[in-house]
Request: fold
Amino acid sequence: MTKASETPKTEMKAKWTIRLARAAGWLALGLVVAGLVHLWFIRPWYLTWGATGDEISRTWPGDELAPRPVSLATRALTINAPVTDVWPWIVQIGQDRGGCYSYAWLENLFFADMHNADRIHPEWQTRQAGDTVWLARKDRYGGRGRVVVAVLEPHRAMVLVSPSDAERISKGGRAESGTWTFILDPISYHATRLVLRSRGAQDESFVAMLFGRLVFDPVHFIMERKMMLGIKQRAEKAGRATNP
Reply:
């Protein structure tokens, strides 16, 4: 009697095991297909969001610091304001200054304590090579939430690198972890192209490559796009207030 009653239970357990295995298989297949679609179609779009062919192929300030990046992103948009009205917003980027003009609520979920400024602060208008740009509070993440200004061309470009790369560059080396560059390219007296170029690491492991392609790159695009739109909105609004 016991063995007979156990038979249906065993059969039911086997059926559920098969169903779960099939579901897991379909899920794995779906993830693989989604990953391939992302890598082949979606990723190329957001790596060059808003940029023209010329902007993608051009050599920009800071490119020489990471000449052989594993990945490369060039994004751009037009700001209806002169370079002189846009540059101050670039200079005051940083957690301890004007913020990053992106999704502060999302950055603060990771304890960045970010606050975005909506006006130009004269006391934040000085930058030079070697300065630290904080991406989180100094007492968070062991003080590692920061990048360093490697190159500064006023009203033209600000190149940011990791602290270790900054030290390496000061000794004549390269930015092995890559560069993050803010570029202003005037297209008329009243309009400026804001170009952001990210040159990836010079070498990376397979795991780092997967993480970069499937996690870091899309998240970075979402945050960077919001930053670019934030700079555009602020610069154009300030210009309208000055010249109503």
In short: The domain at 50-242 is CATH 3.30.530.20 (Alpha-D-Glucose-1,6-Bisphosphate; Chain A, domain 4). The mean pLDDT is 90. Helices lie at 2-47, 53-57, 83-91, 104-109, 163-170, 206-242. The first strand starts at residue 72 and ends at 79.
